[in-house]
TrEMBL record:
This is Adenosine kinase. It comes from Trichinella pseudospiralis. Pathway: Purine metabolism; AMP biosynthesis via salvage pathway; AMP from adenosine: step 1/1. It catalyses: adenosine + ATP = AMP + ADP + H(+). Binds 3 Mg(2+) ions per subunit.
Amino acid sequence: LVGIGNPLLDLEADVPPEFLKKWKLKENDAVLCSDKLIPMFFDLVDNYKVQFIAGGSTQNSLSVAQWMIGKPHSVTYFGCIGGDHFGHVLRVKAEEVGMNAVYQIRPKEKTGTCATCIVGQSRSLCAHLAAANLFSADYLELQENWKLIEKARYFYVAGFFMSSCLPAIYKIAEHADNAGKYFMMNLSATFICSTMKEHFVRLFPQIDVLFGNTKEFFEIAKALGFESKSLKEVVFCIANIEKASNRSRLVVVTQRTKAGDNIRRKHVSNVSGAAACRRTYCRYKRHW
């Protein structure tokens, strides 16, 4: 399994609803950090009990996958970090779970961070990408890196990475399609669905598995012109978007603490107790 994404050091803390209101953040939402939100990071660190955790959507999911597989270095992760202490922390954490982290390093840049604000059973994410935003597709083409891609059978990318390096996503999706491998994506956030419509349209024929929550699926459906108040109607439309291969597309809809729905073309199954792995709802399924 190979994944590519934005490696971030999470600053995680329990906060009251007033904190989100103060910084105009929403529950169960994710945004990129603007200049106005920079002071929010200091507010979080100065006034709340913060845990520093190796994170980033794709890295979180792959860490869980590595844990589930058990065999060291079964999972490879590509991303970009800075040459600082936070970058070192991310490398150590990846090694602890047995994941093969192949980081592109920008020595003069800071490693990306993400404020993870927990309110009860909900969360609000604010990501400051920094070095994570500087990944280059040609890093994948290095001989030692491309060998890892050729060896892999499954590929996973979170929609968040679309704002960082689209050429790298296209390169991996094309390789997976040409080699008969599986390409998986996560919608990641409503703002990704609404702003990256044309790129999703280009990638959909190559997407074998698509993850997302209910809000994200309604948002991508709206962007694609599939508006409906029925979640199953929306997901059926997305599951049946034309594919480049003969394989059907598996769509996995998460619903917070409720059971998740798996939809593959005209088949629907309900999965009880879908794993909510701390800050991500992604599940890795070895069923092919």
